[in-house]
Amino acid sequence: MASATYVVLPNGCRPGAPLDCQDSRGGLFNINRSTTWSERGFFELGLKKDLDYAGNGHFGFDELGFGFDDTALPSLPSQLVAGLITEQHHLGLLGLSPHPINFTDFADPQPSLLTTLKARGIIPSLSWGYTAGARYRLKMVAGSLTLGGFDASRFIPNNVSFSFADDIGRELVVGLQSIISTDASGRSSTLLDSGVLTFVDSTVPHLWLPLEVCQAFENVFGLIWNEAESLYLVNDSLHDALLLQNPNFTFRLGNSIAGGETIDIVLPYASFDLNVSFPLVQNSTRYFPLKRAADDTQYTLGRTFLQEAYLTTDYERARFSISQCQFQDQFDDSIVVIEGTGQPNATATTSRKTSPIGRRAIGGIVAGAAVVLLVIGVITFFLLARKGIFSRDRAPTTPSFYDDNPFNGPQELDPAVIKERVELPTDEKQTVELEVSKWDCELSCEWGVKIQEVPSQVASQEVHADPVRRLDSSNIS
Predict the structure, then answer these.
(1) Spatial CA neighbour of 194 closest among 208, 172, 214, 176
(2) Which of the listed residues 75, 205, 306, 447 has the most CB atoms within 10 Å of its CB?
(3) Which of the residue ranges 8-17, 404-413, 467-476 has the most confident prediction, judged by mean pLDDT?
């Protein structure tokens, strides 16, 4: 997970790039046009080195704003920003790790965006809930990002919780115990039967799995590995066969590689029916987002998985959960807060009593129905913020996301229509992954971050919501 905010610089669209390069990369940030930019220099990006990503970034500090100029949403000065030129990291990203960034030594750590938001009392805890969205569902279901809590309307609750791994920046590790496919005829095939520890990571689109698992996919579905492109490209005849089989893939997850409580996350074939385009291939073509991992350090469940899974992360308690997404024509947002633990190094300005996860109906920053959609990422981001505490007629009693009680979180955002942006050039009926291969996009690739002074490239609509009211502190137990 990243801690800084990454944006694409003008040199990211080199001579000979497609005409829509600027749009496909989410717009470009011109440092020279920002009056608040403070130079730091060029440093190695250090993003996804375990997956052989590379590149340097142009680092500095700038004012980071959420929403649009006419909204009363937070604007944070002197936030760390890295400019991208490399094509490996095709889109910008909003880093959601709370860990500070150090440049050349550990003497001057730079606080993360998430930590800054909590320290200023804008969100109640170092936590977030996220799902990538599913363009193939209903009328193209939007992604959802909630900072300081989660949206209970987006998933089916379960009792399984996961502890953090010890590796900083790679905390979200699960035991992937099995993968089973079931096709339209009811035939089942075991694709993984011996558990492996796997990182859940929204900054990459693919599933990076052991070679023998990839070969099992090849044998069952006729996939062919393209060594030159390092992709499973899908031609028309194979695509027709896969549509006919229409398999579902069941991923069984636990806190270890065998035994214990488990949760099954089911992905339809539609979540794998994606397109790849420039710069990885010259012409847009279908591909299956599975990658051959070189060793166990590369085992990763990327945004393909998070189309159908909702991820809730609490850094203060070192716990996270994964739940099956639920889809409906209209989401009535049910925003549930994860209360902070009250640690002195990351407290909000409002004093709160320490309690288990999600025991307060207190708001954070929410990016829900208003977020731009694309299966797993988008080009222009939005992050619709609502600061403060939700008013209720009675003291709220919000359950932990670790239990299976009904969620009764406060309602915040009404559904809204937004302008959809696709990431890659595509035919009308094709689905494009956010993409592709070595393109790096973080939790919030979908949510737009606007760097101050940068003119907007795309007119978009914001979600309309009633003003948030504060909850009388006397009602908080």
Answers:
(1) 176
(2) 205
(3) 8-17
Closest by CA position to 177, among listed 118, 246, 125, 254: 254
pLDDT at residue 351 in the model: 28
Give exposure, 100-122, as e/b (b: 16+ Cβ within 10 Å).
ebeeeeeeeebbbbbbbbbbeeb
pLDDT bin (cut points 50, 70, 90) of residue 105 is: low
CB-count burial class (<10 Å; 0-12, 13-18, 19+) for 40: middle
Q: Mean pLDDT over residues 119-127, rounded?
A: 95
Q: Could you give the CA distance from residue 80 to residue 97 in angstroms, rounded to a whole number?
A: 13
Sign of CA dihedral 62, 63, 65, 68: negative
Question: Which pLDDT tens digit goes with each residue over 137-172?
Answer: 999 999 999 999 999 999 999 999 999 999 988 999
Q: What does the alpha-carbon distance between residue 477 and residue 297 come to, in Å, rounded to a whole number?
A: 44
How far the first Cα of the chain sits from its last, in Å, is 34
Tokens of 131: 């799902």
Distances 253 to 19, 37, 325 between C-alpha atoms, Å: 43, 44, 15
DSSP calls for 75-94: EEEEEEEEEE--SSS-S-EE
Q: Is the peptide bond before 279 cis (omega within 30 degrees of 0)?
A: yes
Q: How far apart are CA 24 and CA 27, in angstroms?
A: 7
Kind and range of the H or E run holding 42: strand 38-44
Tell me the C-alpha distance between 286 and 232, whole Å. Answer: 9
What is the four-CA torsion angle of 405, 408, 414, 417, rounded to 10 degrees? -10
Residue that has been written with the tokens 């989401």 in this structure: 331
Contact 59, 40 (CB under 8 A): yes
CB 39 within 8 A of CB 444: no
pLDDT digits (tens, 9 = 90+) for 58-72: 999 999 988 766 667
pLDDT of residue 108: 77
Pick left, alpha or beta for residue 140 (phi over 0 → left; psi -120 to 50 → alpha; otherwise beta): left
Q: Widest CA span of the chain, in angstroms? A: 65
Per-residue pLDDT averaged across 224-230, rounded? 95
